[in-house]
Automatic annotation (TrEMBL):
This is Defective in cullin neddylation protein. Keywords: Ubl conjugation pathway. The keyword RNA-binding does not apply. Neddylation of cullins play an essential role in the regulation of SCF-type complexes activity. It holds the Pfam family Cullin_binding.
């Protein structure tokens, strides 16, 4: 089977991801099977020596020196005693201290997103290990250095949106469909002013929170959470260009009326 260089490299990467083998071993099996991935995987599964070597590769630092053993040792420093596959609040506090960041720092949301953390203040071993393995950071020193990279990534509109969307499931109470207003309020105060793709003044955010308070501080749905970010990225400063025929949640349509009235009152002479 003829294959371009890019296609061959893709097959090698896929083989490594599935088996954990070294790039050299992956290339050897694929070359022997004319780069047919299924055939190469079958040959690998029938070779006990190669499988043992791949397992050793995973345990002792394969893929360019990223060591699962290092990650396991680091995980053990913070894991919960009774639930060793989880890090709980106490471990998270120690982890933040070692990373050199405050738990309430916005970049911790990016860390949680990177590691697929299930709920606030908690990490799962699989998500944490997979995230840092993909980032190629297997020591606390390397992870601490990576914080600046994550902070810079938050200045990219697409990455910010992904972190923002992730935050809803991360921050809502387990088993609930909505987020408590008090939590949403604090997260909006943290996130919205930092959005690189929005020009939504803090005074407008204050109006939004005031409006929600007049409605009884109801829990925030996922739809409202996600679409509010879109709203802040598209609305003009005077709320004049809001399209009421668009598919906005009714709470946002009602907020626009509230904001227009509030701005009109502010504009009146004393």
């Amino acid at each position: 089977m003829s294959s371009s260089k890019a296609a061959r490299e893709t097959r090698v990467r896929e083989f490594i991801d599935i088996t954990g083998a070294s790039p050299q071993e992956a290339a050897r099996f694929l070359k022997a099977t004319s780069y047919r991935l299924d055939a190469a995987l079958e040959a690998f599964s029938n070779d006990p020596t190669a499988m043992r070597a791949a397992e050793q590769q995973r345990l002792s630092g394969g893929e360019g020196g990223i060591s699962i053993r290092n990650l396991d040792k680091l995980w053990d420093k913070y894991r919960d005693v009774e639930k060793p596959d989880e890090i709980h609040f106490e471990g998270t506090i120690r982890y933040c201290e070692d990373l050199g960041i405050a738990p309430e720092d916005i970049v911790m949301l990016a860390v949680a997103w990177l590691t697929k953390a299930p709920t606030m203040g908690h990490f799962s071993k699989k998500g944490w290990t997979d995230g840092w393995r993909e980032a190629r950071r297997d020591t606390i020193e390397l992870q601490r250095a990576y914080i600046d990279r994550l902070r810079a990534d938050l200045h990219k509109g697409d990455t910010f949106r992904q972190v923002y969307a992730f935050t809803f499931d991360y921050a809502k109470a387990e088993g609930q469909k909505s987020m408590q207003y008090e939590i949403a309020q604090e997260l909006w105060k943290l996130l919205i002013p930092s959005d690189p793709a929005a020009d939504f003044p803090t005074s407008h955010l204050d109006l939004w929170l005031e409006f929600l308070q007049t409605r009884g501080e109801r829990p925030v749905s996922k739809d409202t959470w996600n679409l509010f970010l879109d709203f802040t990225r598209t609305i003009d400063l005077l709320f004049q260009e809001h399209d009421e025929e668009a598919a906005w949640p009714s709470v946002i349509d009602d907020f626009v009326d509230f904001a227009r009235h509030s701005l009109a009152c502010m504009a009146q002479p004393a």
